[in-house]
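Hey, I was hoping to borrow your eyes for a little while. I've been puzzling over a protein and I'd love to understand its fold better. The fold is given in discrete form, as structure tokens running alongside the sequence. I'd be grateful if you could look everything over and explain what you see. No rush at all, and the record is pasted right below.
>
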Amino acid sequence: MNNNSNIGFGTAAIGRPLYINLKQNKEAEKPFSLAEFKANGMQTLEDAYNNGIRCFDTSPGYGLAEELMVTWLAHKKDPSISVSTKWGYTYVANFDPKATVHEIKEHSLQKLNEQWAYSKKLMPYLKVYQIHSATLDTGVLENEAVLNRLHQLKKENGLIIGLTTTGANQVEVLQKALDITVAGEQLFQSFQCTFNILDQSVLQCKEALQALQGSLIIKEALANGRLLPNTRYSKYEGLYGFLKVLAAQYSVGVDAIALRYCMDSFVGATILSGATNKGHLLANLEAHTFSLTIPELEKLNAFGKSSEAYWKERKALAWN
């Protein structure tokens, strides 16, 4: 078995039939089968495990992802498995590919307690408990009842408390969260952030993020598919050309280059793969077979764009 400790598995795409992404190929549409979808999800979890992945990230907002994890973990007796989950989003699309509303965000104490009641079934593998997409507008980082409850869960269950960030003000949210203490302790010791070649904003907090007690988890390393060369973004032609050169040089796919960029930018971080099948998963894991040089990283850094522009473009992506 390979030790693929730097790559974790994100379960969003195996827990619900649609996800915000740039669809790369047109597949023949066929009726959605929940039974087949569940079976594929379970198999992908097993494929990830069999190929050395031990960190898994999930959420009640990811449809049946937590349910799949609970069922799958029941057959494992491996203390090296580590799970992170979240609270704050409720999946409401009912597995309807034509749904217009997929999730509802609520950062209340009631929602925290409600979702914890199921998420705790992930114990003893559950290590990190996160606020899902903490933002300034919900006021969750100022809600003393929520913060105290999270601290209580930390103490009672030996959890690391974290949060995930999204949007153009990721850095502002991180900086605010890093200053929050409860009972004289820094509450948030793990963060899950969007970071990739296009959105490099969290590099501003690199020193603080690498000093955490818990893990730094990087999501959207492929920028929701935008880093895979395609004709829809001609403005990235220069970036795509360089990614292809690197892919040929290291005998891997462009996806592996994008993941390796994150691994070399934040040494020790967990980079999430969002693969939905074994082929994509194995391609992602090729990121472990090489390292980028400093000049290559610097050249990739030059392709970064402003957070505002990045998230404006991301909001235009469809659920696929």
About this structure: The chain has a mean pLDDT of 92.
